[in-house]
Amino acid sequence: MRRLLLLLSLTLACAVVAPAFGDTPPAATTTTATTPSPAVPDGVVLGGVPVGGLTADEASAALTARFSRPVVLRVGGTKVTVTPAQLGVKLYVGTAVAAALAAAPGTTLGFRGLVDRKTVAAYVARLARRLNRAPSSSRLLLRNFRPLVTPSVTGRTIRRIVALHGVLSFF
Predict the structure, then answer these.
(1) What are residue 4's DSSP bridge partners?
(2) Is 6 in a helix, a strand, or coil?
(3) Nearest to 44 by CA among 98, 92, 8
(4) Partner of 60 for a Cys bridge, out of 4, 21, 35, 121, CB 3.0 to 4.6 A?
(5) How far apart are the C-alpha atoms of 12 and 30, rounded to whole Å?
(6) What is the pLDDT of residues 53-91, one digit of tens each?
(7) Strand pairing partners for 14?
(8) In terms of C-beta density within 10 A (0-12 exposed, 13-18 middle, 19 or more buried), how is residue 158 classed?
C-alpha cells in the first residue's frame, strides 16, 4: 500500500487517528509522589495549535480536539461531510508532542501525517458513482390532449483524477 507523506497547513481541519501520547505505562517508582509532567516551552505552536505551557497530555488533547473535525467537500450544490479517518489520514500526535517538548520557546512546528492514496481514490470513486448523472434533453409530450414540455437536465461527471489531487492537496 503506497502512502504519501504530506505537510499539513495551518488551517487544515482533519481528524486525528493516532495512538495517544504515553501509551506505555509509567515506570514504577519507589516513592508515592508523582513527578509533574514536563511542560511544552512557552510560545510553541504545533500545526497551528498553540501548545506552549501545556503538559504532554494537555497538548495531545488540544491537538486531538483541533484535528478531529470533519471536512466538508462541496460538489456543485451538494455538500459532503467526510472524516479524515474515512480518507485514511493518520496523524501521529505522540511524535509531534515529543518534538514540541524538545523545541525552543517560540518555535512553530509543522505537523506531518500520512495519507493513504488508495483509500482516498476509493472514496472519490464512491463519491463519483453517487453524484454523477447523465444529461437529459427536454421533451415535448402530449398529456390529456395538452402539450407538456419536460425540463432538460444538465449532466454532471466528477473528474476523478482532478478530485483525487484536490483532496490530497487539502491534506
Answers:
(1) 115
(2) strand
(3) 98
(4) 21
(5) 44
(6) 999 999 999 988 888 788 888 887 889 998 888 888 888
(7) none
(8) middle
**Type of residue numbered 62:** A
Taking the complete model, does pTM exceed 0.70, yes or no? no
State the greatest distance between any 2 C-alpha atoms of the chain, in Å, as a whole number: 96
| Sign (positive or negative) of CA dihedral 83, 11, 41, 95 | positive
Instruction: Express the helix, strand and coil content of the chain in percent, nearest 5 each.
Output: 25, 25, 45
Confidence of residue 12 (pLDDT cuts 50, 70, 90): very low
Contact status, residue 4 vs residue 168, Cβ threshold 8 Å: yes
- pLDDT tens for 96-117 read 999 999 999 999 998 866 888 9
C-alpha cell at 36: 509533574
pLDDT on residue 140: 92
Measured N-to-C along each axis, helices 93-102 and 56-66 cross at an angle, to the nearest 10 degrees, of 130
Helix H or strand E encompassing 77: none
Nine cell digits for residue 59: 497538548
14: cell is 482533519
The stretches of 28-110 forming alpha helices (DSSP H) are 56-66, 93-102
